[in-house]
Amino acid sequence: MSNNNSNTNGSVSMGQKIAFGLGMLANQMFPAALGIFMVVLVQNLGFPAWMWGILFFLPRIFDAFIDPIMGFISDNTRSRWGRRRHYVFIGAIIMGISFVSMWQLYKENGVQYNFIFFLLWSFIFYLGLTIFSVPYVAMGYEMSDDFHERTSIMAISQWIGQWAWVIAPWFWVIMYDPNWFPNANSIDPLNPDADTALATRTLAIWVGVICMLLAMVPALFIKSKSTKDETSFSPLTFKAIGGSFKEILKSFKEAFSNKPFTKLCISTFLIFNAFNTVAGFTFFIVVYYLFNGSPADAGIWPTLFGCVGALATTFIVIPIVAYISKKMGKKNAFLLCQGISVFGYILLWFLFIPGKPYMFLFALPFFSFGIGSLFTLMMSMTADVCDMDELTSGKRREGIFGAIYWWMVKFGFAIAGLLTGVIMSAVGFDPNVSVQADGAVTGLRLFFSGIPILGTLIAMWIMRNYDLTEDKAKEIKEQLVISRGDQAAK
Prior knowledge:
Layout: H1 14-43, H2 49-75, H3 85-102, H4 111-141, H5 147-161, H6 163-167, H7 170-175, H8 197-221, H9 238-257, H10 259-279, H11 281-290, H12 295-298, H13 301-328, H14 330-351, H15 364-367, H16 369-393, H17 398-427, H18 440-463, H19 470-489
């Protein structure tokens, strides 16, 4: 099996890394903006909680279900443009158009109409996201076959992508600023008279168009070799794709028989989705615990939590992760960074201090090591796993392995959304009232620190004996060079 896409020289130019990173900015800006805009569905358009839950859950389950299919298609595509680029380009267009369309909601159309309208466009958006993201992530895996260069690629892409989380929180400020949108007549997102639908419709156009263009950059500028004459790929007929379910299930089984890959998937599932389960509590903790339930008094402090945390990830965490992974190895860097994040979550319990909101800023650099290091290291390690898989299977399956990895992430993300509502109900917190029941806010704070700490500690225990080291990766690389040479000679 020839490796048609990996850079066998190892090094990748900075221009190629930046091109890949701009795709990551789009890949992260869409969900970042989505999380901000979703409040409009509940607060301004009158969607009941069960509708919000369905809109959160069903499209993401659909997305997770079709990821492996897209991985199979991408891995087996014969094309003059290689296996990935045209899918990335097409997916970018679908994402951009559907994102703009799904937010063109008007209160006068009624809840039921808006619900169906948004749900249908959500399915189209997530279809585009899958068509884009699965081949896009696989492109990153195959850009280099060098152990440390892979970390550098992912570090730069995550550095650029993190700007989505710096920018997106400021949409709150824009949406509720009457200088931008005069009919948004209150800075209080709990005020039902504040019409933010116009702001969301307008911002969605800017986000959709700009992110669509950014998502096209990897397709246009990242190099790939033609696979037009590749003979080892499975045929991409409707019959073959339909029959691919059997091969996909086989690939799932083979992927999870790969112990290092299983550890990466489970650890990511625990850390990322423990974080997402409680991430939505930040706004409520800041408003109700630090400012006695007054969003007006809270001002931009909820925005600063997300923005400063993302800036800490961008300028502190990612450069440190890229450096220490070279010095102590990827596994040890992972364990150290996650340990720091546990310390950060503990600090947040003590540094949320009523009357002194600035104190929580001191915890954010430590807290940010968790998610900030996660995908930089895990995506780099998944690329190493793809080499291990090729050595045993004879196939390059970045698309399938990337799809399976992100299937775990996306499925868990959907579950996290449901758990968020369950926890809020369990502690008696009601986001639509200004005075909360006794113990409700304390309950949110306990879960806010406790669930990520528990998930992170379990993930660290799972990764303690991860054994795909640099030496082993180099040995696999040498064996692949010999194997590819033998197959090319036949």
